[in-house]
Amino acid sequence: MQDTTEGPAETTPDTAPGRPRGLVLSRPVSWFLLAFGVWSWFVWITFVKNLWKDSSGLAFDDAGDPTGYFWIHLLLAITSFLLGSAIGLIGIRGLRASRRN
């Protein structure tokens, strides 16, 4: 039978005072996430610029109205902007946390 009485709390490296709680990212992983966020913005901004000035007829019809292709790819770009921003922010937070330790 196990002893269920509570004794003094043990301090482990994960629960030591002053230690951040939760996941701690390494500096290389944090830099990778930040670089991924920046890369995502670079790639998708370039793509949206090219999509906007598309003259092949895929993005805009003969009347100059946006096509389904345009709207789907604009939605993909917006989603990638948001995900790239979130991933880059995680990288920034990881770098800031590693400086404090």
TrEMBL record:
Residues 1-21 are annotated as: Disordered. The chain crosses the membrane at residues 29-48, 68-92. It holds the Pfam family SCO4848. Keywords: Membrane, Transmembrane, Transmembrane helix. Coiled coil: none annotated. The keyword Membrane applies. NCBIfam families: SCO4848_fam. This is Integral membrane protein. It comes from Streptomyces axinellae.
